[in-house]
Design a protein that fits this description.
This protein has about 250 residues and is of the alpha+beta class. It has 4 helices and 7 strands; from the N terminus they run αββαββαβαββ. α2 (about 75-95) runs antiparallel to α3. It is elongated.
Length: about 250
């Protein structure tokens, strides 16, 4: 019985071995073709280049963060005084032509205030409430008047202004055109320097674009002054930049 059981096992081995060898042979035949494909891909000479385009445009909107800071002996008094003054500021903003949708609370805090003396434990002196809103001004002609109105109404913290574009598409497209022109000029320059000419554009990718970055333009901090003259604010120009990179196939 032991001898008979071993015969089918030997037969199965004999049948499976050619099939396995056949698979190895097929793989071996495919390998040169695959290697040739990779070799062909690396035979092309390419220029990998990058460039950028910029355009300057006047902003048509601004964001400004302002608020009210109040001090009192108790937390309740500090919050009550802050709320009353902030209501006046909000009313002044709306009267100056700022829509309610363009006014957003950005910070609300209440902090205990302490006096520190050497070798003495901190002494509680009162509480400070702070409420800040970020407003969007879509008509820059109203910007100075809006700032003046809020200060007159009780705002005593104005942190700064950043300018932006309500629709940056046109400025971005102008920067894209400049970027592509710079890219093509660079490809032509390298072609003249190396004796190659551009055959085709293989790949083009983009980076950058319009990003409204806050500008370090403080109006005034803890403003407490007479508004004899209207605040004058210059918007200047914004720089919109688009970066591009490309792969060109070239030949002699």
């Amino acid at each position: 019985m032991t001898h008979t059981a071993h015969r089918p096992a030997k037969l199965m081995t004999a049948i499976a071995l050619p099939a396995l060898l056949g698979g190895v042979l097929l793989m071996g035949a495919a390998a040169p073709a695959l290697a040739q494909g990779h070799d062909a891909a690396f035979k092309a000479t390419t220029f990998n280049l990058s460039a950028f385009g910029e355009t300057l445009v006047a902003p048509d909107m601004a964001t400004i963060t302002l608020g009210v800071q109040t001090d009192a002996a108790t937390a309740a008094e500090a919050l009550k005084a802050n709320g009353a003054r902030m209501n006046q500021v909000m009313a002044a903003l709306k009267k100056a032509g700022i829509a309610e949708r363009d006014i957003q609370t950005s910070n609300l805090s209440l902090n205990a205030q302490y006096a520190y003396e050497q070798n003495q434990p901190p002494k509680l002196t009162g509480y400070q409430a702070s409420n800040q809103v970020t407003i969007t001004v879509r008509d820059l002609a109203k910007l100075g008047a809006a700032v003046d109105a809020t200060v007159s109404a009780g705002a005593n913290t104005v942190n700064g202004i950043s300018f932006g574009l309500s629709n940056p598409q046109a400025a971005e497209d102008a920067a894209r055109l400049e970027a592509v022109k710079a890219l093509e000029a660079k490809a032509a320059l390298y072609g003249r320097a190396t004796g190659y000419k551009t055959v085709r554009l293989v790949n083009l990718s983009e980076g950058g674009g319009y990003t409204p970055a806050p500008q370090p333009m403080p109006v005034f901090a803890m403003a407490k002054r007479e508004m004899a003259d209207a605040t004058s604010i210059s918007a200047g120009e914004l720089k919109v930049r688009v970066d591009v990179s490309a792969v060109y196939e070239v030949s002699k």
